[in-house]
Amino acid sequence: MSADGSQNLVVFKDGADYRVLTEFTREPVFDSTSAGAALQWAIDAAPAGGGSVAVGPGEYPLDEPVRLASNVWLRGSGRGTRVAAGAGAAGLVCEGLKGTAISDLAVVPASGGASTGILLDGCGDCRVRDVLVQGFSDYGIAMRNGSFLCELRGCRAADNGTANIYLEHLTGGDSGELATNLVTNCITYGGRTGIECRHTLVVNIVGCAVYEPGRHAYHLHDESNSVLISGCRSFQAGGHAVLVEHSHELNVSSNIFCWHRGHGIVLRDVSWGAINGNEFIDQGVRSRDGVHMKGVVLAEGTQGVQVVGNTIFNWGDQVPMSIGVDEDATCRNNIIAHNNINYYTEGAVASAGAGTQATANVGHGEGAYLGMGREPYPDFTRGRLEMFMRR
Question: Which of these, 74, 297, 338, 381, is most buried using a 10 Å CB contact count?
Fold first, then answer.
Protein backbone atom coordinates (compact mmCIF):
# COMPACT_ATOMS: atom_id res chain seq x y z
CA MET A 1 0.00 0.00 0.00
CA SER A 2 1.15 3.58 -0.61
CA ALA A 3 -0.12 7.11 -0.19
CA ASP A 4 -0.70 9.19 -3.32
CA GLY A 5 1.38 12.08 -1.97
CA SER A 6 -1.44 14.62 -2.18
CA GLN A 7 -2.91 14.21 1.30
CA ASN A 8 -1.68 14.54 4.84
CA LEU A 9 -1.61 11.37 6.89
CA VAL A 10 -3.15 10.20 10.16
CA VAL A 11 -1.64 7.59 12.48
CA PHE A 12 -3.81 6.00 15.16
CA LYS A 13 -3.82 3.08 17.56
CA ASP A 14 -6.35 0.35 16.83
CA GLY A 15 -6.12 -2.37 19.46
CA ALA A 16 -2.70 -3.98 19.07
CA ASP A 17 -2.14 -2.39 15.66
CA TYR A 18 -1.04 1.03 14.47
CA ARG A 19 -2.70 2.19 11.27
CA VAL A 20 -2.01 4.98 8.78
CA LEU A 21 -4.84 6.61 6.84
CA THR A 22 -5.01 9.47 4.37
CA GLU A 23 -6.45 12.52 6.10
CA PHE A 24 -9.42 13.35 3.85
CA THR A 25 -10.40 10.15 2.04
CA ARG A 26 -9.55 7.93 5.05
CA GLU A 27 -7.93 5.39 2.79
CA PRO A 28 -5.89 2.82 4.75
CA VAL A 29 -2.32 2.90 3.46
CA PHE A 30 -0.22 1.13 6.10
CA ASP A 31 -0.57 -0.88 9.28
CA SER A 32 1.86 -2.52 11.67
CA THR A 33 2.09 -3.93 15.15
CA SER A 34 5.01 -1.48 15.65
CA ALA A 35 4.18 2.10 16.57
CA GLY A 36 7.61 3.24 15.43
CA ALA A 37 7.23 1.57 12.04
CA ALA A 38 3.84 3.25 11.49
CA LEU A 39 5.14 6.68 12.48
CA GLN A 40 8.27 6.36 10.37
CA TRP A 41 6.32 5.14 7.33
CA ALA A 42 3.91 8.07 7.58
CA ILE A 43 6.74 10.61 7.90
CA ASP A 44 8.59 9.12 4.93
CA ALA A 45 5.38 9.04 2.85
CA ALA A 46 4.34 12.63 3.58
CA PRO A 47 3.88 14.88 0.52
CA ALA A 48 7.20 15.75 -1.11
CA GLY A 49 6.76 19.49 -0.66
CA GLY A 50 5.84 19.09 2.99
CA GLY A 51 2.77 18.09 4.95
CA SER A 52 1.57 16.89 8.31
CA VAL A 53 1.34 13.60 10.15
CA ALA A 54 -1.40 13.71 12.76
CA VAL A 55 -1.10 11.21 15.60
CA GLY A 56 -4.13 10.11 17.61
CA PRO A 57 -4.33 9.52 21.35
CA GLY A 58 -2.65 6.51 22.88
CA GLU A 59 0.73 5.06 23.78
CA TYR A 60 3.30 4.84 20.97
CA PRO A 61 6.30 2.76 22.11
CA LEU A 62 9.42 3.14 19.97
CA ASP A 63 11.97 0.38 19.49
CA GLU A 64 14.32 2.84 17.77
CA PRO A 65 14.38 6.59 17.09
CA VAL A 66 11.81 8.08 14.74
CA ARG A 67 13.52 10.36 12.23
CA LEU A 68 11.64 13.40 11.02
CA ALA A 69 11.82 14.81 7.48
CA SER A 70 12.15 18.36 6.19
CA ASN A 71 8.95 20.43 5.99
CA VAL A 72 6.94 17.75 7.82
CA TRP A 73 4.81 18.64 10.85
CA LEU A 74 4.39 15.82 13.38
CA ARG A 75 1.40 16.80 15.53
CA GLY A 76 -0.22 14.86 18.30
CA SER A 77 -3.52 15.09 20.11
CA GLY A 78 -2.12 16.89 23.14
CA ARG A 79 -0.74 14.91 26.05
CA GLY A 80 -3.08 12.08 25.14
CA THR A 81 -0.46 11.20 22.51
CA ARG A 82 2.41 9.61 24.46
CA VAL A 83 5.56 8.64 22.60
CA ALA A 84 7.60 6.21 24.73
CA ALA A 85 11.19 6.40 23.47
CA GLY A 86 13.16 3.16 23.53
CA ALA A 87 16.73 2.47 22.48
CA GLY A 88 18.86 5.10 20.77
CA ALA A 89 20.17 8.57 21.47
CA ALA A 90 16.73 10.21 21.31
CA GLY A 91 13.08 9.40 20.75
CA LEU A 92 12.32 11.93 18.01
CA VAL A 93 15.30 12.99 15.88
CA CYS A 94 15.61 15.96 13.52
CA GLU A 95 18.99 15.78 11.79
CA GLY A 96 20.06 18.19 9.05
CA LEU A 97 16.47 19.25 8.41
CA LYS A 98 14.72 22.42 7.32
CA GLY A 99 11.22 23.58 8.23
CA THR A 100 10.30 20.60 10.43
CA ALA A 101 7.83 20.97 13.31
CA ILE A 102 6.89 18.80 16.30
CA SER A 103 3.92 19.76 18.46
CA ASP A 104 1.14 18.76 20.81
CA LEU A 105 2.35 15.50 22.29
CA ALA A 106 4.23 14.00 25.24
CA VAL A 107 7.57 12.22 24.98
CA VAL A 108 8.66 9.94 27.84
CA PRO A 109 11.35 7.26 28.16
CA ALA A 110 10.52 3.58 27.91
CA SER A 111 12.22 1.30 30.41
CA GLY A 112 15.94 1.39 29.65
CA GLY A 113 15.15 3.76 26.82
CA ALA A 114 16.62 6.77 25.08
CA SER A 115 18.66 9.33 27.00
CA THR A 116 17.06 12.35 25.26
CA GLY A 117 13.47 13.04 24.32
CA ILE A 118 13.70 15.32 21.27
CA LEU A 119 16.91 16.11 19.39
CA LEU A 120 17.51 18.88 16.83
CA ASP A 121 20.93 18.34 15.26
CA GLY A 122 22.23 20.64 12.52
CA CYS A 123 18.75 21.90 11.65
CA GLY A 124 17.47 25.20 10.27
CA ASP A 125 14.13 26.93 10.79
CA CYS A 126 12.63 24.05 12.79
CA ARG A 127 10.10 24.32 15.61
CA VAL A 128 9.18 22.35 18.71
CA ARG A 129 6.10 23.67 20.46
CA ASP A 130 3.56 22.64 23.09
CA VAL A 131 5.22 19.35 23.97
CA LEU A 132 5.88 17.71 27.33
CA VAL A 133 9.23 15.92 27.59
CA GLN A 134 9.76 14.22 30.94
CA GLY A 135 12.03 11.80 32.76
CA PHE A 136 15.01 11.27 30.45
CA SER A 137 18.42 10.46 31.89
CA ASP A 138 20.17 13.28 30.00
CA TYR A 139 18.03 15.91 28.27
CA GLY A 140 14.39 16.61 27.62
CA ILE A 141 14.97 18.71 24.49
CA ALA A 142 18.48 19.08 23.03
CA MET A 143 19.45 21.40 20.17
CA ARG A 144 23.00 21.24 18.86
CA ASN A 145 25.62 21.36 16.09
CA GLY A 146 24.94 24.55 14.22
CA SER A 147 21.15 24.48 14.37
CA PHE A 148 19.90 27.96 13.49
CA LEU A 149 16.68 29.97 13.28
CA CYS A 150 14.99 27.27 15.38
CA GLU A 151 12.34 27.85 18.01
CA LEU A 152 11.30 26.05 21.18
CA ARG A 153 7.96 27.53 22.22
CA GLY A 154 5.45 26.70 24.93
CA CYS A 155 7.19 23.45 25.87
CA ARG A 156 7.21 21.71 29.25
CA ALA A 157 10.40 19.85 30.19
CA ALA A 158 10.45 18.06 33.53
CA ASP A 159 12.60 15.75 35.63
CA ASN A 160 15.39 15.24 33.08
CA GLY A 161 18.68 14.09 34.55
CA THR A 162 21.26 16.54 33.16
CA ALA A 163 19.22 19.47 31.83
CA ASN A 164 15.60 19.93 30.91
CA ILE A 165 16.49 22.09 27.89
CA TYR A 166 20.05 21.82 26.53
CA LEU A 167 21.67 23.91 23.79
CA GLU A 168 25.16 22.96 22.55
CA HIS A 169 27.57 24.03 19.79
CA LEU A 170 25.11 26.41 18.17
CA THR A 171 27.58 28.12 15.90
CA GLY A 172 28.81 27.70 12.36
CA GLY A 173 25.64 26.25 10.82
CA ASP A 174 24.58 26.47 7.18
CA SER A 175 23.46 30.07 7.69
CA GLY A 176 26.85 31.23 8.94
CA GLU A 177 28.21 31.91 12.40
CA LEU A 178 25.59 34.06 14.07
CA ALA A 179 22.00 33.11 13.20
CA THR A 180 19.84 33.23 16.30
CA ASN A 181 17.70 30.60 18.00
CA LEU A 182 14.75 31.26 20.30
CA VAL A 183 13.56 29.56 23.49
CA THR A 184 10.34 31.20 24.62
CA ASN A 185 7.41 30.63 26.95
CA CYS A 186 8.82 27.31 28.11
CA ILE A 187 8.47 25.97 31.65
CA THR A 188 10.83 23.45 33.21
CA TYR A 189 10.44 21.77 36.57
CA GLY A 190 12.48 19.30 38.58
CA GLY A 191 15.48 17.71 36.94
CA ARG A 192 19.06 18.83 37.45
CA THR A 193 19.47 22.09 35.49
CA GLY A 194 16.61 24.08 34.00
CA ILE A 195 18.11 25.58 30.82
CA GLU A 196 21.77 24.98 29.94
CA CYS A 197 23.84 26.49 27.13
CA ARG A 198 27.28 25.12 26.18
CA HIS A 199 29.21 26.88 23.40
CA THR A 200 25.98 28.47 22.23
CA LEU A 201 26.18 31.68 20.22
CA VAL A 202 23.25 34.07 19.77
CA VAL A 203 20.19 32.72 21.53
CA ASN A 204 17.23 34.53 23.09
CA ILE A 205 15.71 32.93 26.20
CA VAL A 206 12.52 34.90 26.75
CA GLY A 207 9.52 34.49 29.03
CA CYS A 208 10.61 31.14 30.46
CA ALA A 209 10.19 29.78 33.99
CA VAL A 210 12.36 27.28 35.85
CA TYR A 211 10.93 25.65 38.97
CA GLU A 212 12.86 23.60 41.53
CA PRO A 213 15.86 22.39 39.55
CA GLY A 214 18.27 20.32 41.60
CA ARG A 215 21.16 22.50 40.46
CA HIS A 216 21.15 25.85 38.64
CA ALA A 217 18.15 27.41 36.96
CA TYR A 218 20.08 28.92 34.01
CA HIS A 219 23.67 27.85 33.24
CA LEU A 220 25.74 29.37 30.40
CA HIS A 221 29.28 28.15 29.85
CA ASP A 222 32.13 27.40 27.40
CA GLU A 223 31.72 30.50 25.25
CA SER A 224 27.97 30.82 25.23
CA ASN A 225 28.18 34.32 23.82
CA SER A 226 25.52 36.87 22.90
CA VAL A 227 22.82 35.25 25.02
CA LEU A 228 19.77 37.18 26.19
CA ILE A 229 17.76 36.10 29.25
CA SER A 230 14.75 38.39 29.61
CA GLY A 231 11.32 38.27 31.18
CA CYS A 232 12.16 34.95 32.84
CA ARG A 233 11.72 33.53 36.32
CA SER A 234 13.28 30.94 38.55
CA PHE A 235 12.03 29.61 41.86
CA GLN A 236 13.63 27.37 44.46
CA ALA A 237 16.82 26.39 42.63
CA GLY A 238 19.14 24.00 44.41
CA GLY A 239 22.16 26.02 43.24
CA HIS A 240 22.56 29.50 41.76
CA ALA A 241 19.69 31.15 39.94
CA VAL A 242 22.07 32.02 37.07
CA LEU A 243 25.65 30.83 36.52
CA VAL A 244 27.68 32.23 33.60
CA GLU A 245 31.20 30.88 32.99
CA HIS A 246 33.72 31.83 30.27
CA SER A 247 31.04 33.52 28.15
CA HIS A 248 30.68 37.03 26.79
CA GLU A 249 28.21 39.56 25.34
CA LEU A 250 25.64 38.76 28.01
CA ASN A 251 22.29 40.45 28.63
CA VAL A 252 20.24 39.46 31.68
CA SER A 253 17.40 41.93 32.07
CA SER A 254 13.91 42.25 33.57
CA ASN A 255 13.82 38.87 35.29
CA ILE A 256 12.77 37.62 38.73
CA PHE A 257 15.04 35.03 40.38
CA CYS A 258 13.66 33.88 43.70
CA TRP A 259 14.45 31.63 46.66
CA HIS A 260 17.61 29.79 45.61
CA ARG A 261 20.11 27.95 47.79
CA GLY A 262 23.09 29.57 46.04
CA HIS A 263 23.83 33.11 44.86
CA GLY A 264 21.55 35.14 42.62
CA ILE A 265 23.86 35.43 39.60
CA VAL A 266 27.52 34.45 39.33
CA LEU A 267 29.73 35.73 36.49
CA ARG A 268 33.09 34.02 36.01
CA ASP A 269 35.34 35.28 33.21
CA VAL A 270 32.63 37.33 31.50
CA SER A 271 33.34 40.29 29.21
CA TRP A 272 30.74 42.84 28.12
CA GLY A 273 27.43 42.33 29.81
CA ALA A 274 24.34 44.02 31.16
CA ILE A 275 22.69 42.82 34.36
CA ASN A 276 19.88 45.34 34.52
CA GLY A 277 16.45 45.70 36.06
CA ASN A 278 16.26 42.29 37.73
CA GLU A 279 14.95 41.20 41.10
CA PHE A 280 17.18 38.80 43.05
CA ILE A 281 15.14 37.51 45.98
CA ASP A 282 16.07 35.29 48.96
CA GLN A 283 19.70 34.45 48.28
CA GLY A 284 20.77 31.36 50.23
CA VAL A 285 17.32 30.40 51.50
CA ARG A 286 18.18 29.33 55.03
CA SER A 287 21.94 28.90 54.56
CA ARG A 288 21.80 25.48 56.16
CA ASP A 289 25.59 25.27 56.41
CA GLY A 290 25.94 28.75 57.91
CA VAL A 291 27.34 30.35 54.74
CA HIS A 292 25.49 33.50 53.73
CA MET A 293 25.02 33.91 50.00
CA LYS A 294 25.27 36.96 47.73
CA GLY A 295 23.03 38.61 45.19
CA VAL A 296 25.46 39.32 42.32
CA VAL A 297 29.00 37.91 42.14
CA LEU A 298 31.63 39.18 39.65
CA ALA A 299 34.73 36.97 39.60
CA GLU A 300 37.64 35.49 37.62
CA GLY A 301 38.46 38.46 35.42
CA THR A 302 34.95 39.66 34.64
CA GLN A 303 35.22 43.00 32.85
CA GLY A 304 33.13 45.56 31.01
CA VAL A 305 29.90 44.56 32.74
CA GLN A 306 27.22 46.87 34.09
CA VAL A 307 25.15 45.85 37.10
CA VAL A 308 22.56 48.60 37.14
CA GLY A 309 19.08 49.14 38.50
CA ASN A 310 18.59 45.78 40.19
CA THR A 311 16.64 45.10 43.36
CA ILE A 312 18.47 42.61 45.58
CA PHE A 313 16.89 41.54 48.85
CA ASN A 314 15.99 38.77 51.26
CA TRP A 315 12.69 38.56 53.07
CA GLY A 316 12.70 38.68 56.84
CA ASP A 317 11.82 35.02 57.20
CA GLN A 318 15.14 34.11 55.53
CA VAL A 319 18.67 34.59 56.79
CA PRO A 320 20.37 37.73 55.43
CA MET A 321 22.80 37.81 52.53
CA SER A 322 26.44 38.48 53.22
CA ILE A 323 26.89 41.05 50.39
CA GLY A 324 24.51 42.38 47.78
CA VAL A 325 27.03 42.83 44.92
CA ASP A 326 30.53 41.38 45.32
CA GLU A 327 33.37 41.99 42.84
CA ASP A 328 36.78 40.41 43.36
CA ALA A 329 40.19 41.95 42.60
CA THR A 330 40.65 40.04 39.33
CA CYS A 331 37.86 42.06 37.71
CA ARG A 332 38.07 45.47 36.06
CA ASN A 333 36.17 48.32 34.46
CA ASN A 334 32.69 47.33 35.57
CA ILE A 335 29.81 49.62 36.59
CA ILE A 336 27.83 48.86 39.73
CA ALA A 337 25.20 51.57 40.07
CA HIS A 338 21.68 52.41 41.15
CA ASN A 339 21.01 49.05 42.80
CA ASN A 340 18.73 48.83 45.83
CA ILE A 341 19.95 46.22 48.31
CA ASN A 342 18.31 45.08 51.53
CA TYR A 343 19.14 42.69 54.37
CA TYR A 344 22.80 41.73 54.49
CA THR A 345 25.51 41.20 57.11
CA GLU A 346 28.70 42.64 55.54
CA GLY A 347 27.77 45.30 53.03
CA ALA A 348 25.62 46.37 50.14
CA VAL A 349 28.50 46.46 47.62
CA ALA A 350 32.07 45.19 47.86
CA SER A 351 34.07 46.28 44.81
CA ALA A 352 37.76 45.44 44.46
CA GLY A 353 38.19 45.60 40.68
CA ALA A 354 40.55 48.10 39.04
CA GLY A 355 38.73 50.88 37.23
CA THR A 356 35.29 49.80 38.40
CA GLN A 357 32.79 52.51 39.29
CA ALA A 358 30.46 51.69 42.18
CA THR A 359 28.09 54.59 42.69
CA ALA A 360 24.61 55.62 43.74
CA ASN A 361 23.68 52.27 45.25
CA VAL A 362 21.25 52.25 48.15
CA GLY A 363 21.68 49.69 50.90
CA HIS A 364 19.95 48.85 54.18
CA GLY A 365 21.45 45.86 55.92
CA GLU A 366 20.25 45.93 59.50
CA GLY A 367 16.97 44.17 58.87
CA ALA A 368 14.59 43.20 56.12
CA TYR A 369 12.06 45.83 55.13
CA LEU A 370 9.43 43.16 55.75
CA GLY A 371 10.69 41.52 58.91
CA MET A 372 7.88 38.94 59.18
CA GLY A 373 8.37 38.63 62.96
CA ARG A 374 9.17 34.93 62.89
CA GLU A 375 12.07 32.52 62.69
CA PRO A 376 13.65 31.82 59.30
CA TYR A 377 11.25 29.92 57.10
CA PRO A 378 12.03 26.21 56.71
CA ASP A 379 14.11 25.25 53.72
CA PHE A 380 12.09 24.18 50.72
CA THR A 381 11.86 20.54 49.67
CA ARG A 382 10.84 18.92 46.40
CA GLY A 383 8.42 16.51 48.04
CA ARG A 384 5.25 18.00 46.59
CA LEU A 385 6.80 18.40 43.16
CA GLU A 386 7.99 14.80 43.17
CA MET A 387 4.47 13.64 44.02
CA PHE A 388 3.07 15.78 41.20
CA MET A 389 5.58 14.46 38.66
CA ARG A 390 4.89 10.84 39.60
CA ARG A 391 1.12 11.30 39.51
Answer: 74
